[in-house]
Amino acid sequence: GGTIGMVGGGQLGRMFAMAASRMGYRVIVFCESIDEPAPQVAHGCVTGKLDDKKAVDQFASQCDVITLEFENIPAETIAECQRFAPTYPSADVLATAQDRLLEKTTLQKSGLPVAPFAEVTDLDSLETASAKVGFPLILKTVRSGYDGKGQHRIGSIDDAKQVDWASCSQWVAEKLIPFDREVSVIVARTRDGRTSTFPVFENDHVNHILDVTMVPASIGDDLTRRANQIAIGAAVALDVVGLLCVEMFVCGESDGSESDGSGEVLINEVAPRPHNSGHLTIEGCHTSQFEQHVRAVCGLPLGDTSLVSNAAAMANLLGDLWPADGSSPPWNRVYDVPGVSLHLYGKQQAKRGRKMGHLTCVSQDRDTAVVQVKQAREQCKSG
Ligand code: ATP
Ligand code: MG
Ligand code: MG
């Protein structure tokens, strides 16, 4: 038992609280509003601005251990939490994960493969950076982007002239990687340095937002080993305690499916927390990413991450699925598709591109799992 503090009130905090609660812990959430997804399922909630020291103290003083569900929390807030209780991941990990440049530099210095990148502050430095990484490139804000927000695909200097350079002072230019597929590995790491990885997930993005995750990833044994090594290497390099999700590009495979040893893995970015690509672990693995997160930060033995069946798939439910009249999609139709589980996050307002829930299917066969979640989602389109 004991009380776990969760900074952040979104769906990741919500699913963490559900897992922790089942394991006998109390969860207190610290977020801005009681209407967010996590407080609805937690034992307690302290609301306030995340940089309000009084609110932070009120929250942290009730906790035995503190963790978080998103990386854009003021570093001072985490430092303040650390005065009251062990806080994982630490303020140092957070500072790195909040800053794409620092993150890439730190990973690169540890010998881990990242896509070629360069710092950019304005149109002139973009020109210099393009000499290093080449066109086309992807321009990203150094701080606070998610779901592809603040990103531009730049094919030429003319494109770069269209960027609102005044909107942000620090950017990073990345080589556009012609990847064959995107994968992610979630690694759990304990206070005493034990690690455990989940199976490699294969991720399809639509409009820079995760759409579908599938497991097993269709990459060969060599690339699988490589992806796992990179993920563990990143968790050690950053000294993460808790979860780290490492998003990677796989390129240069000789053919679409089974590898003959060719191919390369590059890190796109990391997130020191549960991750959307790990949602299928709730039904798909013996231990979910959320339970593993609890185990890691509470100093328990790590759980078995293997799949309960051969395959699983997850499809996100975005706000786009909601009818304009404010009603809900016809969820009952989901239950017509055998083996599909529905998760809704309890968000009050559906907006375009907003993650409102997800569907999971566990199956003997990966293609079946993918077809089932997509079919179930299709049936939830009203009309
Ligand atoms: P989130 O944190 O929600 O995953 P984000 O805003 O931090 O999103 P990224 O993960 O950096 O964004 O990029 C989103 C997606 O855009 C990637 O998953 C990938 O599909 C594409 N993308 C990003 N960078 C590159 C790149 N250098 N080359 C090719 N595709 C890219
Ligand atoms: Mg990101
Ligand atoms: Mg990403």
SSE layout and pairing:
Blueprint lengths: L2 E5 L3 H12 L3 E6 L12 E4 L5 H8 L4 E4 L6 H10 L6 H7 L2 H10 L7 E4 L2 H11 L3 E5 L9 E4 L2 H5 L9 E5 L5 E9 L5 E3 L3 E6 L2 E7 L5 H18 L3 E10 L12 E8 L9 H4 L4 H9 L13 E8 L21 E5 L10 E9 L2 H14 L4
Parallel strand pairs: 1-2, 1-4, 2-3
Antiparallel strand pairs: 5-8, 6-7, 6-8, 9-10, 9-11, 9-13, 11-12, 12-15, 13-14, 15-17, 16-17
Helix pairs in contact: 1-10, 2-3, 3-4
Bound molecules: adenosine-5'-triphosphate and magnesium ion (2 copies).
Number of individual domains: 3
**Quick check: average pLDDT?**
95
Radius of gyration: 21 Å
Work out the helix count.
11
Ions, cofactors and other bound molecules: adenosine-5'-triphosphate, magnesium ion
Contiguous low-pLDDT stretches (5 residues minimum) are none
Element string (H = helix, E = strand): EHEEHEHHHEHEEHEEEEEHEEHHEEEH
Oligomer designation: single chain
Q: Give the class from helix and strand content and strand pairing.
A: alpha+beta
- Estimate the strand proportion: 25-35%
How far the N terminus sits from the C terminus, by CA atoms, comes to 47 Å
| CATH topology call of the largest domain | D-amino Acid Aminotransferase, Chain A, domain 1
What is the CATH superfamily classification of the largest domain?
ATP-grasp fold, B domain
Biggest beta sheet summary: 9 strands, antiparallel
Helical proportion, percent range = 25-40%
Judging by the overall fold, what is the CATH architecture of the largest domain?
Answer: 2-Layer Sandwich
Shape: globular
Class of the largest domain, according to the CATH hierarchy?
Alpha Beta
Instruction: Give the beta-strand count.
Output: 17
Function: Catalyzes the ATP-dependent conversion of 5-aminoimidazole ribonucleotide (AIR) and HCO(3)- to N5-carboxyaminoimidazole ribonucleotide (N5-CAIR).
Keywords: ATP-binding, Ligase, Nucleotide-binding, Purine biosynthesis
EC number: 6.3.4.18
Family: Belongs to the PurK/PurT family.
